[in-house]
Design goal:
Layout (H helix, E strand, L loop, with lengths): L1 H7 L9 H24 L2 H38 L10
Helix pairs in contact: 2-3
Amino acid sequence: MSALKHYVHNHGQHVDQSLLKTITFAVTHFTVAFSVAYMLTGDLLIGGLIAMVEPAINTVAYFFHEKIWARHTQNSTARTEDGAQPVPQPA
């Protein structure tokens, strides 16, 4: 539980916000998924089931995506600070 508090509560220190961001993303995603599934089917049970499965898997994927993205950003910043030129990305 203390690890969760570390991620969620910022006590004046620089704290990784990716877990909090993931939780807010999950709530948003569950809400949108349920709304769309319910509007398409008109069934609360099916809307609820779809809103439980797909967003749950997507939320886990999003959390790891954020971790990878943060590492990429940190590596890019380190390369720039070392004087290396960033590699241009294809459009």
